[in-house]
Amino acid sequence: MTCCEKLRVIPTNINLASLKRVNMSGCSRLRTFPDFSSNMELLDVHNTMIEDVPSTIAEGWLRSCELNIGSTRLKRLTHVPEYVRRLDLSNSDIKKIPDCVIGLSELQILSIKNCRKLVLVQGLPPSLLFLHADDCVSLKSVCFSYCKPNVALDDWKCAKSEDELMRKFTFYNCYSLEEEARRVIIQGWENMSVGLPGKEVPSEFTHKAKGNSITISICDWTFSASSRFKACLLFSPPAKWFPHTINIVCRLRSKGVLINEILFYPNKRPWYNSTKIPSQLLTDHLFIFDENLFGFGGGRGLEVDSDIQFEFICKYQNSKIIECGVQILGEEGESSSSSSEWKEQSDGAVEASKDENLVKTSKHTGWRRGLKKLVLMKKKNKNKTE
């Protein structure tokens, strides 16, 4: 029922208990919120005249659902179904994240793209995995105080890889961000990637180099299987470049030997609507992510005793990595540079390596420590039963 421009009201006495998915986007005169069924899985009413979700309807939805309600008519939101997992408020006139969103314990994906009056992002629920805040030209302040990850062991049981648990927050083309907001975004949390406008690699990354490669020489430092690193890449995008198309290969070497290879998608979206135009990067941007140094189980990486070379390759035509930075993280995510002596050397730009067959690892080979413990527990229990 998309783009039915003469549709104004949906009858309330329709019994459609089995109806699960409804798309009424673009019904530009629709004013009343449709009340079809408490078993809805998806309701798309973006670009309509609906201004809020009635409390009776929000309280009646009894299952996990996806709600797309963004439009310029939406200036506030007072009620949202408790079990909503995916919420799209893009193109709305909201000025901050609605209070009713903060308490959504199952919300995993929030899109607030092109909310041009939005000035504050705050109170994000701990369950949130994906935040798309692109093109929010008035956005100044960001606070993650309630957004600290609370992933439990039960969540790891369902995860097939670390990629499923990695948070991805994007702030593409948000040029009004204040310095403190940029600091909060860049600092982030462990197992999190972010994208935002930038002109240089931040000072937090003490190991920096021009181009797409950096080698860090190590003195008196012992790595463990759980050692992690945080990387920052400064990109100069080509014309008409859409970030959802990018992927980055990160190769780690020691003494010329490939010890880990990671395939990273800065803007991989589990919830991508092909009818929506993705954001186009207008200027240079920063991509920041963290990963395990040596992949699942550690392997040869524990034998590193001289240096580690980080090489970053952007697999997109005419894209350019201007600068890169690396920070080695400790057991709890803090920088290790303060407790060890480092001597770094800039490699500058290097060509994409051709030794693809040295080590073939799956994308995002680093798994969370809790997931590793779970696997070890399962193996131990299996051996006991045998």
UniProtKB/TrEMBL annotation:
InterPro entries tied to this protein: LRR-SigEffector_domain, LRR_dom_sf
Domain of life: Eukaryota
Gene3D superfamilies noted in UniProt: Ribonuclease Inhibitor
Basic and acidic residues compositional bias, start-end: 341-355
Residue ranges, annotated region (Disordered): 334-355
PANTHER family, per database record: LEUCINE-RICH REPEAT-CONTAINING (PTHR45752), TMV RESISTANCE PROTEIN N-LIKE (PTHR45752:SF171)
Name of the molecule in the record: Disease resistance protein ADR2-like
Organism: Raphanus sativus
High-level lineage: Eukaryota, Viridiplantae, Streptophyta, Embryophyta, Tracheophyta
